[in-house]
Design a protein that fits this description.
By secondary structure, the chain is mainly β. It has one domain. It is built from 1 helix and 5 strands. A 5-stranded antiparallel beta sheet has the order 4-3-2-1-5, with no helix packed on it. The longest helix is centred in the C-terminal third of the chain and has 6 residues. The protein is globular, with a radius of gyration of 14 Å. The two termini are 20 Å apart. The relative contact order is 0.25. The model has no long low-confidence stretch (mean pLDDT 86).
Length: 74
Amino acid sequence: MKKLKTGDTVELKSGSPKMTVRNYSSKSSKGKMVSCQWYDYNSYEFKKCDFLEGQLQLKESEMPEAPEAEKEMV
C-alpha cells in the first residue's frame, strides 16, 4: 500500500465514515499506527482515533489516475 500522508481521505477496509489522516502517531508491535479524524453527525463532534496502517484504504475518489503512458504499457 502507498504510504498515507496528512490530509489523505481514508476509510477502514471493513467500512467506516470518511476520515482524514492526521499523521503517523506511533509504531506498535503489530505495525505503524495512523491517527485519523472524522466528524460524527450523531454527536455533532469531531472524533479521532489511531488505526493500524493495514486497516485503512484510500477512498476511491482519492486514488490518482494512472498517466496515459502507463496505461498503454499494460
